[in-house]
Amino acid sequence: MNALLSVTGLCVRLPTSAGLVTVVDSLDYEVETGQVFGIAGESGSGKTISVLALLGLLPEGAQVEGTAMFDGRDLLGLDRRSLRDVRGAEIAMVFQDPMTSLHPMMTIGRQLTEHVRYHLGFSAAKARERATELLHQVRIPGPESALAAYPHQFSGGMRQRIAIAIALACRPRVLIADEPTTALDVTVQAGILRLLDGLRRQSGLSVLMITHDLGVMSSIADWLTVMYAGRVVESGSTREVLGHPRHPYTAGLLAALPRPEAAEDTPLRSIKGSPPAPQARPDGCAFHPRCQYARPSCLVDVPALAGIGDRRRLACPVDPLAVPV
Amino acid sequence: MSLLELRDVEVEYRRVGQTPLRAVAGASLSVDAGQVVGLVGETGCGKSTLARAAVGLQATTAGTVLFEDRKVSPLGRRARSRKEARLQMVFQNPFSSLNPRRKVGDQIADSMAILGLVPPGKRRERVAQLLDQVGLPANAAERFPHQYSGGQRQRIAIARALAAEPSVIVLDEPLSSLDASAQAQVANLLKGLARDLRLGLLLISHDLAIVRHIADVVAVMYLGLVVETAPTRRLWKAPMHPYTEALMEAIPRADGSGWLPEGLPGEVPDPAHPPDGCRFHPRCPYAFDRCLSESPPLIQVRDGRTVACWLHAAGAEERSPSTFAKRASAVADQVDRV
Fold it and tell me: Where are the alpha helices (DSSP H) in A138-268?
């Protein structure tokens, strides 16, 4: 396996008023070159924290364990200076809300050239040239004039394209995209997904995609891991995980989704209850209070993530959705 | 006569030193008892402005808004009467629409006291009943909003609206801040409330997929105008406006098939400078000469469906633009062969 980024045993504890709380628990995954790896989960599942940990962007007092091997280096062991050289240059990030991730008082041109000059040592003229080329690549009309404009002069979809251009400026090898289309309309979302898909096909960019939207995952992710309450419940190829979910949580999420392709009058079946807060996660399998298949052992034992073939893994010893042979 | 009726409503925002912005440029729709009407469209199409105009939070510049046969007046300093309060609103974000410093029960009981609907001694009981109706335990009354998740808070906001004994509730993106499982729960709750209480609901949403599961009727808005209305099932079977068709094709499918949804070229134009002719023509794959100069009126097609598009004539069959296009290209092929 030629994994570009390989995360093993990642645990994150965050300080709260009630002491340290485990937000991410033994997370493993590998991102390969030119592939889109998806981390899915509802809010509070720890998916965002797990990637912020890789880039050293956690709040003061956070404890991180595990390793994150990227190009022969452990990101979690790097000092601040070395990490700063990786961040934005080799691993870049796009956030959910382009209204808050872009600086409102700085021109697009300045935001697009600042880190290019810092990381790649480009001259002002060369950085500007690169910026124009990037805006062209993400299909911003009139790139030259866009450089002098401010974020508020663009629509939400355009702003997200600009945020992607900024992230791509230093030719990163990994792009971390945290809910990049959640704030956008579906028509605009489709354009962004096609853009990301084109980038990984043409330039071999690896994308670590974080979203709660399984529809978005289905259209773009090659591999998918589903998180619940800080732990992985199921992982594998997107086709397999979404086509034949094995964990009751994944299956429940899919049944709760309005499916455009579903037959008429398919009712939305919601999962009872709501996800636990990180400081109040239940013992045993964190999903047991909401699971219709829960057995007494689920209340006590934390289910291990076990291989079930085809590079799939499942954390459910009951495995009620297995196809009988 | 419908419970809530909007006729040719226009809303214009005046702006200092700039041309006025017509956010709603003549929109009509109606909501009946027990009916869920979905109003969908992209950001900036004017759907939230129309929702606010429907409840009197936004003054209209033209057209009428009638609720239970009375004109809805813009909200002023005067308290709303019991009759006027039968039109309620639920907002998108339950984190900001609920008061963080007051107990859930007190917030729900407010309208009972203000409107004099329930005597003081019976309010606790009524609050418990309302909480039960939205699927929360009675002890929720003694707790604070922050003790609840987003979905539960939206239930509290709905209970608060129900306390005024409404006949119509306007909901502005009530589901979009919620996770998938909470979204399904609240969607099913709304559907049940409309059925059990004979409530009329006007549901504003950008998400056509969720609207399909709740709404009986869907109205599609584009750049300040309603471009298509139809019973939900039939809209889904055969969208008649090219914009509706594009909205449907852009919805991703969570089936693991790897199918990439189709985007709509271009951007929503600036509502201060709408394109001439049909407002959708610069983005429409089917646009022809007439669309560039003449704005299509909203016409009746088959039973209960309306559409504003030059591809369709009054009383026409239900056909999607793409089936037209396929047929047209098939004809072109034949012509080529001849």
Answer: 143-146, 156-168, 186-203, 214-220, 238-243, 248-256
CA distances for A41 relative to A47, A105, A213, B85, angstroms: 7, 34, 8, 40
ipTM: 0.85
| Lookup: tokens for B171 | 């909901």
Kind plus residue range of the DSSP H or E element containing A26: strand A19-32
Residue with tokens 């039939």, as numbered in its chain: B234
Interface of A with B in 162-191 (CB under 8 A): 185-191
Distance of CA B195 to the CA centre of its chain: 18
CB contacts, 8 Å: B175 with chain A? none
- In the β-sheet with B70-71, what is the strand arrangement from edge to edge? B21-31, B4-13, B62-67, B70-71
Of A43, A194, A215, the CB nearest to B254: A215
| Token pair of A296 as six digits | 């007494």
Quote the strand ranges of chain B, DSSP E. Answer: 4-13, 21-31, 36-40, 62-67, 70-71, 87-90, 168-172, 200-205, 217-222, 225-231, 299-300, 306-307
If you count DSSP H runs as helices and E runs as strands, how many of each does chain B have, helices first?
A: 11, 12
Whole-number Å distance between alpha carbons of A275 and B16 = 47
Over the stretch A149-167, which tens digit does the pLDDT of each residue have?
999 988 888 898 899 999 9
Residues contacting residue B77 through CB under 8 Å, at least 6 positions apart: none
Instruction: Give the rounded distance of the alpha carbon of B77 from its chain centre.
Output: 27
- On whether any CB of chain B is under 8 Å from the CB of A312, the answer is no
Q: What confidence tens digit (pLDDT) does each residue in B294-304 have?
A: 999 999 998 78
| Distance between CA atoms of residues B338 and A117, nearest Å | 62
Q: Hey, which residues does B90 pair with through a beta bridge? A: B171
β-pair partners for A67? A8
User: Is a pLDDT exceeding 90 seen at residue A288?
Assistant: yes
DSSP H or E segment with residue A39: strand A36-40
Closest CB to B252 among A215, A255, A264: A215
Q: Cβ of A155 under 8 Å from any chain B Cβ?
A: yes
CA-nearest of A88, A81, A137 to A111 is A88
Of the candidates A179, A222, A201, the one whose C-alpha atom is nearest the C-alpha of residue A3 is A222
Separation CA B255–CA A196 (nearest Å): 20
Of B214, B195, B193, the closest CA to residue B203 belongs to B214
Phi, psi of B219 (to 5 degrees): -115, 130
Per DSSP, what are the bridge partners of residue B29?
Answer: B6
Neighbour tally for A54: CB within 10 Å: 24
A102-116, A177-191, B95-109, B192-206: the lowest-pLDDT one: A177-191
Of A235, A241, A273, A272, nearest in space to A254 by CA: A241
**Nearest Cα residue to A89 out of A167, A203, A3:** A167
Q: Which helix (H) or strand (E) holds B302?
A: none
Backbone angles phi, psi at A215, to 5 degrees: -65, -45
